[in-house]
Amino acid sequence: MDNTTKGILTPRDIDEEGRYYFVRKAIDAGEVVRLKNGLYATEDGLADTMVDVERIVPGGVVCLYSAWEHYGLTTQMPGSIYVAVEKHRKVVVPEFPPITLCYWEQKYYEMGVVETEVAGHRLRIYDIERSVCDVVRFRNKVGMDVMTEVLRAYLSRKDRNIACLTEYAKKMRIGTRMTQYLNVMV
Fold first, then answer.
1. Are 14 and 3 in contact (CB under 8 A)?
2. pLDDT band at 25 (very low <50, low <70, confident <90, very high)
3. CA distances (Å), origin 130, targets 56, 83, 163
4. Total structural domains within the chain
5. Mean pLDDT of all residues in the chain?
6. Domain limits at 37?
7. Whole-prediction pTM value?
8. How far is CA 117 from the centre of its chain?
């Protein structure tokens, strides 16, 4: 098995030709666990706090609680990995690791996506300003306390970019609301 997969495997990673016999043998031996059809994990891969989201949800973007936690904007520990996908897309996620899918319209889905590396995994995630806009956009679902915590943490950062934040807010149709909250907190 290839060590470059960081614990999340496809049948080709188990056997170079992807033969079912070798995959079944690895499962029976306890070397791998089936996550979903065509996707397997080693014990080390399951123990890792950050999984290879791209292999589990191709094209998915880490968002909401998971993004806020990544940027150090919240003390909330997400119970699952929050991943945005395009609206109307059908995605099957495994029981483990727990993944919460967020279905967003294309114009919001593509806005502010950056690539980074976390724990050796390539990760698509919304940039920090876009993530802050999401907390204002979903304030009624996440709660005012979470929104306030994220906004205060963002405003206390030296690398904040208020111009970018307000530009995203306008595109997401929450510009007036964002300006109100920023005026109260600054």
1. no
2. confident
3. 23, 14, 12
4. 2
5. 84
6. 3-47
7. 0.75
8. 12
